[in-house]
Amino acid sequence: MTFISAGDRLEQAVGLAAVLGAAYEAFEGMRWEFRAREDPATRWFAGFVMAAAAAADGRDAVAFAPSMPARPRRGAAESGPGLPARESAERAAGEAAELSRRLAECLTRAAGLASDRGDREACEQACRCAREIFDLLGGAAL
Amino acid sequence: VTGRAVIGDFLDAARGQLGSAAHLRLAAGRGGDLREISHSLLRVVTVMNRYVQDFSAVPRQVPSREPLELATWERASLEARNALTTAAVLLRGDGTSGRSPDMDAGSELARRLDAAWLSLAAGRDLLHTHLTRALSGIVEPRSEWGPVITSRPATRALLAELALLAHQIAPVGASLALPPRTHGTPDARRRLTAACEWLHMLDTSIRTAHQDEPVSVADRELLHAIPVNWLQPRRLPEGTEPVEGLCGGVITAAERARHAAWASASVTGRSPAMSVSSLRQAAAASTLTSHHCEILLRSLSTRTARDGPAELSAGLLVAAEAARGASRSWLSVAHALDDVTTDTQGLSRAATAARDLALWTGRLAYADPHWTLASGPSHEARPPQTLAPQPDDVPGVVAAVHYACDAMTGFAHAGREQVRAGAGVDRILVAAENPPDIWDIPMPYVRAPRERIDAILALYQFTSTASADAAASAADAATVVKATSSVLATARSATDAGRQGGERLASTGSDPSAAGKAREEPGPVGRILHGLGVTSPDLLRRGADIDRVGKQLIIEATAENEPWGRQANPATLGRSIGTAVSDSHARKSGDRRTTLLEGDRVWLLREPPEAEA
């Protein structure tokens, strides 16, 4: 699943459970991507290291939401690396920034719609994580 | 370095206020009221005695008349305590009239003593900001400096400082023997002279211990560097700081990080402050801080290769490699933490402090004055010639890197302790590999398997070692360039030795068994709990507390009923535990000084032999 398809899935998600499921996959996909690209020799090292932690936090936040749908299994099968390794770090950062921006928007909307306090707090927490990823990698998207 | 007051400021001030022995003799020659001088000296002696009681490693009382086998410095500590107690009793006499602290003394000698007393009292207060006393009477640390204060190196250095003070003051007794301008009763003069003799004995006792097991310069520097337990407020770089300002910012951030890491290591597993989110942030930030330290150390190595000693440049390169290893190790911890979680997500102070330190070290490492963790690809390392334009600039940067590396070591230890605590209460979770077919279960998380926890703990242990290696290499460089941070290595060594050796925290209680929880045998309540099969650490700790308090009560009750336990005046002071110890030692060693102490049975009833002459 690429970042673009993850973003599309987010846009198409209808209802809180679907948004949470799509957000989970998006965060996990980004985490995989960032971890694969952590190289001290590159100039994106700091951004990817910190963004990976934020992506894992975002993934966990939505995972604990009461309305989070069950999922068959967590791992690379559903949310593996988003871009081929030959693609540049700049492009990966840029696409991740864009995805995190869309994530933050979707999660903000979902938090507004959630009637359950646990869902609302999970969406807000995950939204903060998405914004942090955007802040960390946003330079590449601009 | 850190802008905080340190104990050395107060110890130096006290010695300066007393003045040299010549100054004091001169002041004594100018005379004064003996009661006033006695009162001022009593203040000094009392605060010195409190230093010994609070921070030395010997129990006040022992619940048995059996003689103890004490090490050199423990014996010196005990003798110092006896000397100061006796001097205080002598100076108190029949009830020296107290003087309000804000009332100036009439004589120069008393004024000098009063000034020294104030400095010493302030210094003691400073040390106490790092310690607190639990209900059980055990003194516990309130900061990462707490274990340093009660470590052997620091307590020995403190005793040596007290000996220096006693050495300065003791000759005053002889100077006051017959000056024409002093006025007071013969008894007051005799007591003052005797008290000074006891200060002389304290000095001799500690000097003897120093000859047997010397206090090193590093130990003394460690003691002097203990700061007040107050951290500068959180501050982030503005982008206008010169290199010197950035070094100061790194050191301040590292001090805050070090304290936050120390505090987080002791949170309980159930605390909301214990979250994998915090651990992830700390691991990610520590990866970067270590990486920045590597960049800085390489840059310093290049810089010093030009006009510094060859071994310094090579040593900095070794340190850079160690920092690189630490960074990689931290990254492996970050990866391992991806696959576990906790039921809370909040960020701890330690995580924030770790992030701040990564930012400050990044600002120092990179040329871009506005560099942030979110900076994109446009950053280059700061060139060596701008990092340290002059050779004199090198120590400041080395100190900053050393502080940062030392803080990383603290984070590794704290992270390990938190994972261990969280796992102990089943709060470290993993996603269920095979979630049940009941799809309405919202959170398919289960307790992390033991092997997963062990793997994370092992990674933290590797990281702790790697970070300690980096800090040790940075410390070597700090020593070579005489950077002010070199005291950190001594502090780390002192506390590590204490941890490994089960060294006790100083106990101000009377129960010597309270000295070290680690080697404490269970008391009656503890034995019953063990017999019941109780394994809960909390219950066992509460049982041990009850045992300690009970034992202390029995000891105090015993002491009150012993005629030799009363300390109202010298005539009834009697045979103390110190005497028992000295007797034992004297019988075994037969040395002249302890033979003199053999006379404790006599002096406790009368006065020191020298004073009678």
Descriptive account of the structure:
The complex is a heterodimer of chains A (about 140) and B (about 625). Chain A has about 140 residues and is mostly helical. Helices cover about 75% and strands about 0% of the residues of chain A. Chain A has 6 helices and no strands. Chain A is elongated and about 45 Å long. Chain B is an all-alpha fold and about 625 residues long. Chain B has 25 helices and 6 strands. In chain B, the strands form 3 sheets. Chain B has a two-stranded parallel sheet. In chain B, strands 2-3 form a two-stranded antiparallel ribbon. Chain B is globular, with a radius of gyration of 28 Å. Mean pLDDT of chain B is about 80; it is low at about 500-520 and about 560-613. The chains are: A mainly alpha (about 140), B mainly alpha (about 625).
Summarize the entry for a quick read.
Chain A is mostly helical and 142 residues long.
Largest interface: A-B, 39 and 40 residues
SSE-based structural type of chain A: mainly alpha
What is the overall number of helices of chain A?
Answer: 6
What is the terminal separation of chain B in angstroms? 52 Å
Strands ordered across the widest β-sheet of chain B? 1-4
Rg over alpha carbons of chain B: 28 Å
Task: Tell me the total number of β-strands of chain B.
Answer: 6
Radius of gyration of chain A: 14 Å
Percentage of residues assigned to helices of chain A: over 70%
Question: What are the secondary-structure elements of chain A, in order, as H or E?
Answer: HHHHHH
The profile of the biggest β sheet of chain B is: 2 strands, parallel
Shape of chain B: globular
**Mean pLDDT score of chain B, rounded?**
81
Largest sheet of chain A: none
Low-pLDDT stretches of chain B are 502-520, 558-613
What's the overall average pLDDT of chain A, rounded? 84
Fraction of residues in H or I helices of chain B: 55-70%
